[in-house]
Amino acid sequence: MATIADIGVAAALNLISAFIFLIAFALLRIQPFNDRVYFPKWYLKGLRDSPTHAGAFVKKFVNVDFRSYVKFLNWMPAALKMPEPELIEHAGLDSAVYLRIYLIGLKIFVPITFFAWAVLVPVNYTNDTLELQKLLNVTSSDIDRLSISNIPDKSQRFWAHIVMAYAFTYWTCYVLLKEYAKVADMRLQFLASAKRRPDQFTVLVRNVPPDPDESVSELVEHFFLVNHPDHYLTHQVVVNANKLAKLVKQKKKKQNWLDYYQLKYSRNNAKRPIMKTGFLGLWGQKVDAIDYHISEIERLSKEIAAERESVVTDPKAIMPAAFVSFKTRWGAAVCAQTQQTRNPTLWLTDWAPEPRDVYWNNLAIPYVSLAVRKLIMGVAFFFLTFFFMIPIALVQSLASIVGIEKAAPFLKPIIEVKFIKSVIQGFLPGIALKLFLIFLPTILMIMSKFEGFVSLSSLERRSASRYYLFILVNVFLGSIITGSAFEQLDSFMNQSANDIPKTIGVAIPIKATFFITYIMVDGWAGIAGEILMLKPLIFYHLKNFLLVKTEKDREEAMDAGSLSFNTGEPRIQLYFLLGLVYATVTPFLLPFILVFFGFAYVVFRHQIINVYNQEYESGAAFWPDVHKRVIVALIISQLLLMGLLSTKGAAQSTPFLIALPVLTIWFYFFSKGRYESAFVRNPLQEAMMKDTLERAREPNLNLKGYLQNAYVHPVFKSDDEDDDDYDMAFGKKEDDVLVPTKRQSRRNTPVPSKISGGSSPSLPETVQEHHEP
Amino acid sequence: MATIADIGVAAALNLISAFIFLIAFALLRIQPFNDRVYFPKWYLKGLRDSPTHAGAFVKKFVNVDFRSYVKFLNWMPAALKMPEPELIEHAGLDSAVYLRIYLIGLKIFVPITFFAWAVLVPVNYTNDTLELQKLLNVTSSDIDRLSISNIPDKSQRFWAHIVMAYAFTYWTCYVLLKEYAKVADMRLQFLASAKRRPDQFTVLVRNVPPDPDESVSELVEHFFLVNHPDHYLTHQVVVNANKLAKLVKQKKKKQNWLDYYQLKYSRNNAKRPIMKTGFLGLWGQKVDAIDYHISEIERLSKEIAAERESVVTDPKAIMPAAFVSFKTRWGAAVCAQTQQTRNPTLWLTDWAPEPRDVYWNNLAIPYVSLAVRKLIMGVAFFFLTFFFMIPIALVQSLASIVGIEKAAPFLKPIIEVKFIKSVIQGFLPGIALKLFLIFLPTILMIMSKFEGFVSLSSLERRSASRYYLFILVNVFLGSIITGSAFEQLDSFMNQSANDIPKTIGVAIPIKATFFITYIMVDGWAGIAGEILMLKPLIFYHLKNFLLVKTEKDREEAMDAGSLSFNTGEPRIQLYFLLGLVYATVTPFLLPFILVFFGFAYVVFRHQIINVYNQEYESGAAFWPDVHKRVIVALIISQLLLMGLLSTKGAAQSTPFLIALPVLTIWFYFFSKGRYESAFVRNPLQEAMMKDTLERAREPNLNLKGYLQNAYVHPVFKSDDEDDDDYDMAFGKKEDDVLVPTKRQSRRNTPVPSKISGGSSPSLPETVQEHHEP
């Protein structure tokens, strides 16, 4: 049993290590040669050039202005200074709203922590139950003295916990409701923002029925000319360009190799580079590498041209889906929200995702197939959650000494070496589990893709909810009740509905110290690691050293990364869950949660401003999920408190808790009805207002020209074939269309824009602090 | 324990009594003086005149054509003869689809019965488990020998039941899916039927936000002129005319009394009728009844005029809701399906219910209030279901001799009389429960009204689902596991999720004979009673004898009644549940279910053709509920079979059943996604097609004039004030607009319409069979 002193030591250690990380970060980030690692976003936006262009040689690599070392924590206020409207313009609404998750963590838990310490800690502490038990040789730590465990059975003091449970629930719901309203408002404002965007006018139509007499394109045109005669403008049929995209990717890879060999040759003119054509260049025929790659690229270029031709002309490559654009936002909003034909599985219309957000591969899956895929993935996820230990245990048994000797007897002499033996015994079993957990988000993402979602944002949302369930079952419940998930499931099936919360509730106070440690190691240290960006740092310098020849190469060597909603959000939710569950039970845990939320908020705000490059913009479409999961955590905490109290003999007071989950569930449906549609539907009034404004401002706008190519498959986008890498096509060519940043506009107009007002001068500090010493 | 012979005797008795009912019905219905009791629908449609108009005096009252007595069952084929399209025209889609519920009962259970008897009965019968147990003095009946109880524990024969469970599930789902498709098709066809109807063009707008500068009417007009500029036509603001309606009703009542006294006076001119003005005419001032009523009516007329004035002008009487009509069906379909403003709880648009279907009182409830009402009613219904025995037990204890003597000691001498005492002891406690059960549908309807639904059809649907839950808990579970619902709930809470199906499953075979008796008494006899229409028969003749003076009075004396979905459908669902649960357990029960469905189908078809007068037409909007409840029954049956088998030691085979509920739930979501939207949304293609057709056919249609008064509160509808009773206004003045019958058109065009084709001549038989002998 850990005492408060133990926890204090652990906290100090974790804080020190986090501090070391921060100092390392502070030192590394102001070195010019790391500039592209720590400020990639500004480069991608074209607002920052390599510092290597000018100045003395040393200055190119090392920051010699020692004053900047003194202010080594000044990134924190800098990160906090950018006002939210500017942040939305700079990084998109998704990122800005993602930050608000940490913020509501603070909003919820600051008052809860205060009241829990002001009310519950004294109530718990002024008992001597645990002292008495100590005499009976029951072990307990000082933390438990601050927790509900210290209250004797059947005490009237449990009323304090019940009242506080009501207060905490009320406060959490209040914050959630306010926040839902705020985010819904931000989303609508964002969608109705002054800029024209192709997805405002466009609807994705799927499951176009086959017609023997007409091509898909004709069919779509006729259908919408008939059924939306006043509004239909144009459409873009979806083609199956997956093979083409693959060829282009191959060509790009060969081109890279060619560059590499040419570089090698230019350095050492004496010897033409030689390579083998077989697997990984390990065997096969020996050929001249440069010639080989030139011929390969030529072959691929021809194939690409042929494929490009066939994709456009072959009716089989045309998928029964299309992006249909309308003359007005109103027309698109109407089409997206209505049912087109009697058969609700044909001519499915949905608001088109932003072009960057489209997941092209899934656009042509018919309804029945979707339903079957959903079922299969549901069953698969169930087994993944509850039985994932079985294959891992198998691998682990194989990875044991005996297992390996059995499977591959010829390895026996090597394995018997003492050092190797200990490595195998010590690491392999753990590595199997670790590998699985590392690949879990990828597995979940593949499952979501199989389910047939058509936008990257919905793929990530789906993966996130599955990951959350996995964490809930295997991390939260798994830590509280030992045993594999399946054993838990089995025991739950054999327990009564009354007993399950009791079983878990009783174990809750005991596990407080474990979760405190978990928060420090996974939360605090994890975030400090996030800001240091060790992996991108190392990879960038490696690439820079080995491959980079031109500015363009250097650009590609940057790995900005992005907020990955599918793994990040479920992890935050775990902290909400822990905070809410322990708020009434062991308030001692709450400050640790607070530190996590505060620290994470600052770090991620910095990362969003300077590093991450979002792949898409969904307009905060994930918020209903976030809201729902916090409410789930709230209900779990209420049920567990009921279970715990009922074992404490507080039979008198426990029934007063029954209303809580009922009210919370009601609150969920209330808030869902009130705000969810802002994330699903599109108000006509807004659309009409925008249309009218635009008509007045730009009466001669050529909308057809504007929309013509907005939803072309990325492979067809660029004319320069060497460039048509996905990210580039999206990141660069669309950026100016999609999420314009103020920086860019400032280039043309030197006066500061109105939104940021007086605070905008704060930004150049971050950007230019080591350019103008 | 009932043997098969016992059941046979009971069945014979029930059949004989049903047969007697049928003979009574056959005799009564062909007497001309009962014509208005057994054929009110034809009168209400104006297609049949009183047979009293012509012929000999005797013939007016008694049918003297003895040939018609011989064919006393000929109503049955007559009822079956009317083809479905004609039935829809005649009685509306709701009624026609309601009949299909019985039909799918037959479709599901005929093959199931056949296979259960062909496979399961032999499998069960060729064991001697129960024979052996009899030696051990365990009682069992012959019915149990045909049931699953006769199979020894751990037998391999359970595989037969598992395979059949799969087969039955597959078949049920198949029939349900086919039927869902069929009904969805019928609904869309009906909605798109050739006739123009006001609700095709109209949308109900609720929660119009208050505006200080504009009246509700101006606000609505401006909003829709701005946001639906090309489609908005006109609107009708909803007024709070509840007080006016009350006054009109009062006046009508007084008018009735006036008629009564005038009649009395005309019969006996000697004495002016005298009445007392106080409560129920029992005390108060004595006045001349005719003069009093004339003056009262005058006063009310004035009040009505004043109220009518004030309702139209007083801004407080204007509710923030309106019926908005559009120029095209397309415009209305678009508006009904889209969200209008950023705030999803303002400007709520919904497809307008048919004018007859509107529940006017609930049109002005704001969103928050709706959410709170829903919560309150949810909690109230929970207590009603699980704790309804508590107040009844209280009443019962009060209604006992001791209770009454305590509460009202002065009654003691009366109560102590032996006869009265035995009445009180024997009847009162039972009557309390009976009264509750009789009033339960009314209570549920009041709860639904409080919840704020805006159409009668949705009120009935809501009441139906609550009634179903009540029946499920208190009739089905209550019969299987004795004890009050609350005791069951308590024991379920204390049992594990595994044990609940076991507890119930084990009791299932034992209760087979009980449910067979229940089916015969409640099902068979109940339906035979339905066709005899004893209550309307008696009331009609009483009224006819006492009150009727003119043809109009006679019309009003008719009580056609209607299919009451809120009580009828949940009862049918109980038979689905019983059939599916016992299909694999005790196939002996299945033929009884079959007889019920077949008999009920014929009887209700007859009633719908000749008697019932539907109050509204919802276009079969209830079908998704029917579908859902059959699937719930299916899942319950699967879980109970799993529970039963697991207690039978069939541990090997039981796991194979787990996939069944998973697949069934998946099937539910699949079919819901596939067809439900046909009952909720309105395809634009259909609307556009209708619009185009209409524009071509009637280019000069004055739609505004047509729609102007369609959604006026019924109180304002009639010019003849004496007539403005709700039912009359709806039943008569709208009928020709809303649900046109072919009869009517045939009056003008003697050639049969195309739809019914050759089969149409069959109908006059039913109608005119005793007019042309």
TrEMBL record, chains A, B:
Composition-biased stretches (Polar residues): 747-765
Domain CSC1/OSCA1-like cytosolic: 200-362
Localization annotation: Membrane
Record domain CSC1/OSCA1-like 7TM region: where: 373-645
Domain of life: Eukaryota
Residue span(s) of domain CSC1/OSCA1-like N-terminal transmembrane: 7-179
Keywords, in A-Z order: Calcium, Ion channel, Ion transport, Membrane, Transmembrane, Transmembrane helix, Transport
Keyword match Lyase: no
Chain residue ranges for the region called Disordered: 737-773
Topology within the bilayer: Multi-pass membrane protein
Segments passing through the bilayer: 6-28, 97-120, 158-177, 375-404, 424-446, 467-486, 574-604, 653-671
Pfam family, any one: RSN1_7TM
Family affiliation: Belongs to the CSC1 (TC 1.A.17) family.
Name of the featured protein: Calcium permeable stress-gated cation channel 1
